[in-house]
Amino acid sequence: MTAYLSLAIWVPIVAGLLVLAVGRDRDPGAARWIALAGAVCGFVVTLPLFFHFDTTTSAMQFVERHAWIPRFDVWYHLGVDGISVLFVVLNAFTTLLVVWSAWEVIQTRVAQYMAAFLVMSGLINGAFAALDAVLFYVFFEAMLIPMYLIIGVWGGPNRVYAAVKFFLYTLLGSLLMLVALVYLYGASETFAFREWYELPLELSTQILLFVAFFLAFAVKVPMWPVHTWLPDAHVEAPTGGSVVLAAITLKIGAYGFVRFILPILPDASRYLSTFVIVLSLIAVVYIGFVALVQADMKKLIAYSSISHMGFVTLGFFLFNQLGTVGGLVQMLSHGFVSAAMFLCVGVLYDRVHSRRIADYGGVVNTMPRFAAFVVLFAMANAGLPATSGFVGEFMVILAAVQVNFWLAFLAGTTLVLGAAYTLWMVKRVVFGAVANPNVAALKDLDRREFWLLAVLAAMVLLMGIWPKPFVDVMNASVADLLAHVAKSKL
Amino acid sequence: MLATLAPVMPEIVLLSAACAILVIDLFLDEPRRKVSYWLAQAALLGTAWYVLATAHAAPAKGFGNMVVDDMLSDLLKLAALLCVSAGLFYGRQYFALRGLFRGETFVLTLFATLGMMVMISANSFLVLYLGLELMSLSLYALVALHRTQAAAAEAAMKYFVLGAMASGLFLYGTSMIYGATGSFDIDAVMRATLDGPANRILLVFGLVFVLSGIAFKLGAVPYHMWVPDVYHGAPTPVTLLIGTAPKLAAFALTLRVLAGALAGIEFDWQGMLIVLSLLSMIVGNVVAIAQSNVKRMLAYSTIANMGYMLMGFLAADLNGLSAALFYAITYVLTSLASFGVILLLSREGFECDALDDLRGLNQRSPWWAFIMLLVMFSLAGIPPTVGFYAKFAVIEAAVNAQFVWLAVVAVLASLVGAFYYLRVVKLMYFDEPVDRSAIEARGDARAILSLNGLALLALGILPQPLMGLCVVALTQSKFL
Questions:
Q1: Could you tell me which of B246, B388, B400, B211 has the C-alpha nearest to residue B316?
Q2: Peptide bond into A225 cis (omega under 30)
Q3: What is the pLDDT of residues A252-289, one digit of tens each?
Q4: Looking at the domain assignment, is residue B438 inside a domain?
């Protein structure tokens, strides 16, 4: 049996180190090609995970288990189920896009840039595939280092503030989680967190642990009110950094909810579900309004990310199959759509060097092909049927109706708000008369940019029209998860 | 005769070598000074080899039970010797460019190392004190080596006065413990405290004084005032020496006194350790933020790190002590690399000691910036560097000993700490260099520093060998 998961983790990391070793600032060509080769290989080794995945079982697949730190009974233990497998593939795919999108855009310290993304891609795969709590934590926290450097070295004018804020915010949550993990180890004598699913815990203990885990993952998602690092990080990060942040790293927060909080602390989760649902709804509605008034395109998309991720946490805490699967589908869809939106902003930024909405207008006149893509992705972001954005949101709203009508009603406002802020931005940027000489001088997409966006557009439409293959992968694992959530540990 | 000397053979080897170098150096003229340097290196590495070659599992006691040669002492001595040797490699150029490349520098270094080895092997309060004094006196002199510099003289004075007071406290406490138990022998004191006939009030008074002396040597708050000034004022290679290997000796001192001799009054010293550990973590990490000098910042970082190490002692079981041992060794390794980079960047007439001197290091030399990045993330406790496992182990020990609240405070303090470590990374990677001069360093220092930095990463990916060794060393040494 091939160790596909180990390959998915280590191929990008080794490629990244190779890029660092070979890359020279004066001749970035070699670094680019090695990085691309590494990203392609990294993507190819994840494909068997999807195509050889057995959708009939909720058990872990592609399992690898080797002793790592016997002193603390820590294992190098990898495996994926229907919940995590798609994110490994999505991550490898996004890395490929990021390397490709940086081809001509990044001109300073190319080797370090490419290496940072490749290493981070491996670490993220590790976080999704780890079945040992310490192994998960190591990957979870190690990925802060490359992201910190990406924002700080290649970011915008306020990059230092954004990078430090990003790092410290995330670290705060994860350090408390570390104490929680150690506590659970003390209670169970193992770091294999799947065994914690069966560990009996008092409600008061569960609530304290819930707080620790919740802080770690809520910051990462991010949920209101611990979301404030995200707009800063997104605005200052280079395009690739924004893409990976939005498409992948936010998902790790949501993944933590379904992997750790719900099954390990089912009673606390039910006890505190109203609290989480309220926070999610605030994210959906209030942050939707906040997005409406943004003058900066990247900031607007960042707030729209928070709003969309609110749907994900909402879906998880409804505790039914439809809501949980809907949340996961929403995560995947948001991975494609937000990546595409940030790439679109990157395309404009590379030409005009401004992210302000007011600096544009009438882009459709000079960049018709680009405008077509933007409109498609905007529709997906607004949740139009036949795009991927619709599927997840619709499932979560249906699930919410089963629980409470007004809940569903409030969640449903996102369809209005999402359409409002996204389409209004598109109207101001893309349509109308040519606003200024900068816009008049714009050149339409080159071949590299065209294919980049075309691939994403194909994925968005595919998921929107035929979501079945994705949902089928998840179903068995989600059913198993809900069985754990339903079982009291008191 | 020779058999009884076996437990102290490494010390004898080093002492003879130091004396020989002292004499040989008199006959060397200035251009041939490097002979003494290489002899000192040979003495350190030779002793290290001897310690390794004669390492054995069963503890052997000598000199009427006054010294002990066990696996723990072998491990600590080996680490201390290699660390001092690497420190000399890093510091050679610095010494040479400032007229400090002299015989007495090397001999004093060897004597300080000898003092550490005596402390590590001591099995009696008096021998502990002897080692402590030998180490401290050599270090006082080393700090003052740069006679013409006011800062160095001030640091030496401060170090000497406060250090002498701490030694006095330790000695005073020892006399009380002697009064309560009738013995200097650590095993005998341990039996007396465990059996309980000893005068408990006297014993606790003795404990307070002894622990104050220990806390001073560790640099734990509130006995930390000397640390920043001495780190700042001393010539950087001497700061390196003070900031690394003596921590191993101080670990041995703490272990033999608290977990060994005074195991019977664990409840009394546990509370004191909580206060020391808590204050050190908070004060060290918070005050470090305000520093603009790298050496002062690392001084406060040491204070904080000693606080984390003390957390491992709270439980006083195998789990906690092996975590503390692992912490001490990995901290020394990390600290060694941090001073190594600072020494590497210093050159003739230029001290790399302001934080701003690290600005833009990534553009001057990506490799050394990467090594310093590893050091900083290791000190901050971010995986995949070894510093993470050190913090992880002591936090696990604290939670295991039912001090969950202390673990929470510890991680919050380390969040504060992460801020200033991140600032160094920010300076190196995000800022433009102000000084673009090429980095000059000897090949051997470069090679060893590279290995040292990569060891932080390698041990971070595979921590088990060292962790396992710490457990085995403590088990074999019959601690607990």
A1: B400
A2: yes
A3: 999 999 999 999 999 999 899 889 999 999 988 899 89
A4: yes
Tell me the pairing of strands B67-69 and B60-62: antiparallel
The two structure tokens encoding residue A88: 């490994």
Residue B148 inside a domain? The answer is yes
Q: How far is Cα A455 from Cα A336, in angstroms, rounded to an integer?
A: 10
Would you say residue B145 lies in a domain? yes
Residue B359: its pLDDT value, please? 86
Cα distance between residue B78 and residue B426, in whole Å = 35
User: What ipTM does this complex have?
Assistant: 0.90
Helix (H) or strand (E) holding A69: strand A61-69
pLDDT of the residue at B138:
94
Closest CA to B186 of B66, B281, B57: B66
At B139, phi and psi to the nearest 5? Answer: -70, -40
Say which DSSP state B264 is in.
G
What total of structural domains would you count in chain B?
Answer: 1
* Domain of residue B283, residue span: 2-475
Please give the Cα distance from B60 to B317 (Å, whole number): 22
End-to-end CA distance of chain A: 40
CB B387 within 8 A of CB B379: yes
When scoring A10, A71, A172 by the number of chain B Cβ atoms within 10 A, the one with the most, hence best to mutate, is: A71
Interface list for chain B against chain A, based on CB atoms closer than 8 Å: 322, 362, 366, 373, 377, 382-384, 388-389, 392-393, 395-396, 399-400, 404, 407-408, 411-412, 414-415, 418-419, 422-423, 425-426, 429-430, 462-464, 467-468, 471
Length of chain B: 480
In-domain check, residue B429? yes
Residue A105 has pLDDT above 80, yes or no: no
Rounded Cα–Cα distance for residues A400 and A330 (Å): 15
